[in-house]
Write a structure and sequence with these properties.
371 residues; alpha+beta; six-stranded mixed sheet; three-stranded mixed sheet; 13 strands; 34% helix; globular; Prot_inhib_I29; zymogen; hydrolase; Peptidase_C1A_C
Length: 371
């Protein structure tokens, strides 16, 4: 028997051969292993519509041959319902995938830079799902922003190019997971850079501390960098990533003042002129910034320059870390460290056109201050 279908694994489009799955289950000694076989090919969409059933089945721990006994006929029905659910969801995801391909093609045809758009690990998500899970709509709620002191202008004009990765001020790309905590990653990345410039050591600091202990922001449902700076000041500093590890969901605050390895004294807002942002970055370190991330769902590589219709600068919904700038074949760019893992974009980075305030990149640049 050969039953083939198309589905997604980890958000990446792939082909599933269910005959292999059936064979795997036939020789498997337990239902747990059978479902593990299925998970090898099935999509991460299971948790979206069928999660409760999947968890139930994985927790049964019975031997596969036992479910054929009459007294366990309910297990057969549960398995049947699970697979009906999964097939229905696979069909829905396939339709979403095809619609997203059309969007990516439209972005590609109208892009003014050198970007390549296409299939990404987010291609099986609707725009609404993508925004609710990975983005931060709180950023566009301008009335909620805490006003920051204006940073003094940079002492020198911006050099032609600059990249803090080349100067040791940037940690490897991290992954926020299915949690809208980009604001925490943006701020912590900035503080890591500020602490490096002040003390000469690059330390991986804890985003989870902010997710758990910032009482003003909303953890995985979004937050504002201005609030995060204030939370760190009130707490008295930040622990290391090792001491306060990231889980991707809100927990009870477990901050320990004795484990603080970095602190900040205040925070400042950077001028909205892109030339001043570049000069300030080159002089003072990586910056916390935010932007409209619509095009980022389908970005693969190159310098992204979407039309404003795709990237309203007032609809900011994602916080990131600005680490440098330069030009590729004459196209000026910002180098942006994202928090969706190294398998996103260019080794975890997004490159955005510089010089036209694209996607609102200039509207929310800020930095911690370490005296």
């Amino acid at each position: 028997m050969s039953l083939k279908a198309k589905s997604f694994k980890g958000g990446v489009f792939c082909k599933i051969d269910f005959s292999s799955f059936i064979s795997c289950c036939y020789v498997s000694p337990s239902l747990n292993t059978c479902l593990e076989c299925f998970n090898m090919w099935s999509a991460t969409f299971c948790h979206l519509s069928c999660g409760d059933s999947l968890v139930l089945h994985q927790g049964l721990g019975v031997r596969l041959q036992d479910i054929t006994k009459p007294r366990n006929i309910h297990l057969i029905m549960q398995c049947f319902n699970l697979f009906v659910c999964l097939f229905a969801e696979a069909d829905r995801r396939l339709k979403i995938f095809h619609e997203n391909l059309k969007t990516a093609e439209k972005l590609q045809s109208l892009d003014q830079g050198s970007a390549e758009y296409g299939v990404t690990k987010f291609s099986d998500l609707t725009v609404e799902e993508f925004r609710s899970v990975y983005l931060n709509p709180m950023l566009s709620q301008w009335t909620q922003h805490r006003e920051l002191k204006r940073a003094p202008p940079a002492a020198q004009p911006a050099p032609d190019s600059w990249d803090w990765r080349e100067h040791g001020a940037v940690n490897p790309v991290k992954n926020q997971g299915m949690c809208g905590s980009c604001w925490a990653f943006s701020v912590i990345g900035n503080i890591e850079g500020q602490w490096f410039l002040k003390n000469g050591s690059l330390i991986s600091l804890s985003e989870q501390e902010l997710v758990d202990c910032d009482g003003v922001d909303k953890a995985c449902r979004g937050g504002l960098p201005s609030n995060a700076y204030e939370a760190i000041e009130k707490l008295g500093g930040v622990e290391t990533e090792n001491d306060y590890s990231y889980t991707g969901h809100k927990q009870k605050c477990d901050f320990t003042s004795g484990k603080v390895v970095a602190y900040i004294n205040s925070s400042v807002e950077i001028d909205k002129d892109e030339k001043e942002i570049a000069a300030w970055l080159a002089e003072h370190g990586p910056l916390s910034v935010a932007l409209n991330a619509f095009a980022m769902q389908f970005y693969r590589k190159g310098v992204s320059h979407p039309f404003k219709i795709f990237c309203n600068p007032w609809m900011i919904d994602h916080a990131v870390l600005l680490v440098g700038y330069g030009a590729r074949k004459g196209v000026p760019f910002w180098a942006i460290k994202n928090s969706w893992g190294e398998d996103y974009g260019e080794q975890g980075y997004y490159y955005l056109y510089r010089g036209s305030n694209a996607c609102g990149i200039n509207k929310m640049a800020s930095s911690a201050v370490v005296n």
